[in-house]
Design brief:
This protein is 30% helix and 26% strand. By secondary structure, the protein is of the alpha/beta class. Strand 3, helix 4 and strand 4 form a beta-alpha-beta unit. Helix 2 crosses helix 3 and helix 6 packs across helix 7. The mean pLDDT is 87.
């Protein structure tokens, strides 16, 4: 895909997330509560980099950005605060390499606010930074009902980023955005001239109220000297014969139903914002 003809809507949800990862990631990867869709990563990497270039993810989770980069013949570096997830990133990269991926990758465990120091040898080299910040200390995670028919209590699992309160996911939104701004500023030091920073993010609902996280990310990025060049939609749903195939989570649908019962015209999210920035 060429950047100059990048569509405003990316068909990244044609396959369910679990199908996109099946066989491509180690099964333990499902433990992470907020995984980036592989199709989003692969399309962004293809659009903004060439084979042999470096892709960076400062909050790499299970390593989706790194895995898709090495499969596309790019090299990659990632940083992850949680040692457990950093280990999964390493396992997923090794899994990709064992299945023929030609790129190389490295991962560091630590606070991404220090990324410019940790990856100081990469200063001025990265062609692309691709990442997504946490949405808070909890996510929807995985859901299991108490009976096959769907009755009984709802059990949640894999819905926490961390139990470590030093993790940015535990911070209130203003502090989370402040920390993310520090991370973006560090990443700018690692970008080569003309390099791109891409952020995937979606609005969330807190107590039924819509929170414009994409807008806050844009304000945070602009405050550290980045310029928004594209605001695209990466579909989380499938498209079949002109119709959308809903892939919203149980809790997204529950939130929408509750709001509709109160007379508010709320729909479940069907896309993520894909924000593309360059240094000013």
């Amino acid at each position: 895909m060429n950047e100059h003809v990048l569509p405003s809507v990316l068909a990244t949800g044609q396959l369910q997330a679990k199908m996109q990862r099946r066989g491509r990631y180690v099964p333990e990867s499902m433990r992470h509560p907020g995984k980036m869709l592989p199709a989003i990563a692969s399309q962004v990497i293809s659009a903004f980099t060439e084979p042999g270039e470096l892709v960076l993810d400062p909050m790499c989770g299970i390593g989706t950005t790194l895995v898709e980069a090495v499969h596309l013949g790019r090299h990659a570096a990632g940083m992850e605060y949680e040692a457990d997830f950093a280990g999964l990133t390493a396992a997923n990269v090794q899994h990709a390499r064992s299945h023929g991926a030609e790129g190389f990758a490295r991962v560091a465990c630590g606070d991404a606010r220090n990324i410019a120091m940790v990856f100081g040898d990469l200063r001025g080299i990265a062609a692309l930074v691709l990442t997504s910040p946490p949405y808070g200390m909890r996510t929807h995670g995985h859901v299991r009902c108490g009976s096959r028919e769907g009755g009984g209590p709802v059990q949640k699992s894999n819905h926490r980023y961390s139990t470590d309160k030093g993790n940015l996911a535990y911070q209130r939104l203003p502090q989370l955005m402040e920390g993310f701004g520090q991370i973006l500023a560090g990443c700018m030091e690692l970008l080569k001239s003309g390099g791109v920073i891409a952020v995937t993010i979606r609005p969330i609902r807190v107590n039924g109220q819509l929170v414009d996280l994409p807008g806050q990310v844009i304000e945070t990025a602009e405050a550290v000297g980045l310029v928004l060049t594209h605001r695209l939609a990466a579909l989380l749903c499938g498209v079949r014969e002109g119709r959308l195939i809903n892939r919203a989570s149980f809790f997204q649908m529950l939130e929408a139903w509750k709001s509709q019962e109160k007379g508010r015209p709320v729909c479940a999210a069907a896309h993520e914002d894909l924000l593309i920035f360059r240094a000013s």
